[in-house]
Fold this protein.
Amino acid sequence: MAQFDGKAVLVTGAGSGIGAAIAALFVERGARVLIVDRDAVGGGAVQRDLATQGEVALFTGDISDPDTCDRAVAEACTRFGRLDILVNNAGGGRLVPTETLSNADWREMQAGNMDTAFFMSRAALQPMLAQGAGAIVNIASVHGHVGLARHVAYGAAKGAVANMTRAMAVEFAARGIRINMVSPGVIRTPAFDKEVGAANEQPFAALHPIGRIGTPREVAQAVCFLASDEAGFITGTNLMVDGGFTAQ
């Protein structure tokens, strides 16, 4: 099991769901973690919960703004003296029929998924290049690899994240920085519970050959592997955490 004793980690969208699970697992394994989320209440609750286990700080802001990303990375470097790992988890999407998809909805999903990952990665590359080492893990989605009805905006954004991961991995491989992605299937998060609920879960579970939906911790375990030295010869790859969804 990979350990991260003393490593400095920044996790975006860590105020709930998958991001909170990622932050928690890094803390369990010895990392110092900066939680980044635009929700000060949710982010604060996660920070307080994890602070009993290790060194955890909170940065609040909208990372679709590049200046906010620069400040978040600067905060991590000030607090921890370096930045070893970035996890671009922030994002989300909605089911919207393409013919009624508004300009605002389109831009919101690109900004919340694609822009956030690029701006945060660009900011994090500065200290990582100075160190000569680093790891970035992007949370993509099955939606970025297959076509699903009413998900054109979200699918386009996550598809962009997937190809951005590959392009950046090639660009920075020889400079000590590994860049990979994890693509989850349907995951039981607070957002899923709010929008769908356990009573209506079975149709989503049936999409996965394994017969159920996933958990945030299962995504976190994949992230930690790709960020660890155990994955030292892995860059530019995509790890599907989807219960066989895309194998069909």
About this structure: Residues 27 and 54 are 6 Å apart (CA to CA). The radius of gyration is 17 Å.
